[in-house]
Amino acid sequence: MICPFCRHDDSRVVDSRPVEDGTQIRRRRECPECGQRFSTQEVALLNIIKRSGATEPFSREKVLVGVRKACQGRPVNEDDLVLLAQRVEETLRSTGQAESEAQEVGMAILAPLRELDEVAYLRYASVYRNFASLEDFEGEIALLRALPSSTKAASSSKKSPENKA
Ligand SMILES: [Zn+2]
């Protein structure tokens, strides 16, 4: 890191400490040339490239706003949503890239939302993937039915002979 005082092309770290719940690290540096001290801050980058081409930092809150809308009236609590937003962030970070497309955020939301609530998932997918017709819904529902769901698998292992009227 270049010294901001004398432009010497090296500096020495004299102190490091985590800040902001450990999501950032602040370092105190000293220039071996002029002896001045200065601070730097290190953050794990995760920026979202919007459709307009502008970038903004990833926001769990924005994920929550979108998903909350899809979950209106569904038996989903706020803790579930917070956990979902966390999983979305982890998915995006696990790509190892500093930037993700807005599209990828939408994709990262779909899988955990499907596990959480299938109706909310359909609502979200219908907007996000531009469902245009009943056939689109039918196709998606057929896919959902074909998917092994952990909760369903548990309850269907005990088959009862009579169906609900
Ligand atoms: Zn210097």
Provide a concise account of the structure shown.
The protein has helices spanning about 60-70, 80-95, 100-115, 120-130, 135-145, 150-155; strands at about 10-20, 25-30, 35-45, 45-50, 55, 100. The chain has about 160 residues and is of the alpha+beta class.
Q: Name the helix and strand elements from N-terminus to C-terminus, one letter apiece.
A: EEEEEHHEHHHH
Uncertain runs = 152-161
Number of helices: 6
What would the average pLDDT be, to the nearest integer? 86
Alpha-carbon Rg, integer: 24 Å
Give the overall form.
Answer: elongated
How many β-strand runs? 6
Amino- and carboxy-terminal Cα gap: 73 Å
Largest sheet: 3 strands, antiparallel
Topology:
Elements: E1 12-19, E2 24-30, E3 37-43, E4 47-49, E5 55-57, H1 60-70, H2 78-93, E6 99-101, H3 102-116, H4 118-128, H5 134-146, H6 150-156
Description:
A hairpin with a 5-residue loop joins strand 4 and strand 5. The chain is α+β, with helices and mostly antiparallel strands and 165 residues long. The protein starts with 11 loop residues before the first strand and ends in a 9-residue tail after the last helix. It is built from six helices and six strands; from the N terminus they run E-E-E-E-E-H-H-E-H-H-H-H. The strands form two sheets. Strands 1-2-3 form a three-stranded antiparallel β-sheet, with no helix packed on it. It has a three-stranded mixed β-sheet with strand order 5-4-6. Bound molecules: zinc ion.
